[in-house]
Amino acid sequence: MIDVYFEDLPEGHVIELGEKLVTRDEIVAFATEFDPQPHHLDDEAANASILKGLSASGWHTCAMMMRMIVDGLAHRAAAMGSPGMDEVRWMKPVRPGDVLKMTGIVKFARISKSKPDMGIIDIEWSLFNSHEQVAMMRGIGLYGVRNPQAA
Amino acid sequence: MYFEDVELGVTTQLGSYTFTEPEMIRFSRAYDPQPFHVDPGSAKASFYGGIIASGWHVASVWMKLVIANQQKRAASGEARKGGGVSPGFLNLRWIKPTRPGMTLTYDTTTHEKIELKSRADLGLVRTLNLAVDADGETVMSFTGQGFWPRRPRD
Lengths: 151, 154
Fold this sequence. Notes:
The complex is a heterodimer.
Chain A: E1 14-21, H1 24-34, H2 38-41, H3 43-48, H4 58-72, E2 84-90, E3 99-111, E4 118-128, E5 133-144
Antiparallel strand pairs in A: 1-3, 2-5, 3-4, 4-5
Chain B: E1 11-18, H1 21-31, H2 35-38, H3 40-45, H4 55-75, E2 88-94, E3 103-115, E4 122-132, E5 138-149
Antiparallel strand pairs in B: 1-3, 2-5, 3-4, 4-5
């Protein structure tokens, strides 16, 4: 059921998402297909690398963040995709066994000038493992307006 | 090859990739299960008028082609380029939807070199990256960032 619209995500609104367990199998499967570098595939090579242990591809981290956004927000929102992300920071390695949580804060929200039934919402997402922030993603989500006449 | 050896304005062709509907749906079921990415019926009725690839799938294929390119160069005895570690990226734009059967051609161009005050042994290289469709229109662009080792001083 769709019950989250543009009007429900005003500037300053905070969204809490999670939890997501990161598995070794998932890290290796994603990296095998999209980012087959030794430090994402093999413990021995990963231990010798500057990341000091097996870690997820940064693109895998983005994909996991997207999945958390869909599960926690977009699946029940009038979500219409995204034109892009202004910034993504990979701050710390994402490891097998990490339990991830994410917090989003709405930085700005406005109605599209060309499509008055669509809202443009800029959200800064912070991804955490159990003890520190590991990634940041800031960008636009497009959300349907519940009541375009009133907005 | 060191940070000091990176020339700006050099474009590397990364190759092409064709997105098939089953593959698009498989990626999106795992990472981006929104109706317009996974369900042809509701995708048809959506804003997009049909199934489109997750933007993260389009971006992840860029990474796949970068690594394939590095492996090809390494196999032909060329020195490896780039450090393999990135602090993240900037200005990712999904400009046009990627639909089933579309072939995208990717390239990367060295754009900016930044010396790091905090790390005398590393430099940051920024690249402009494009995925272009068969009509030559840009589908995705972003600014990539990679750390490169500095040439040791004797």
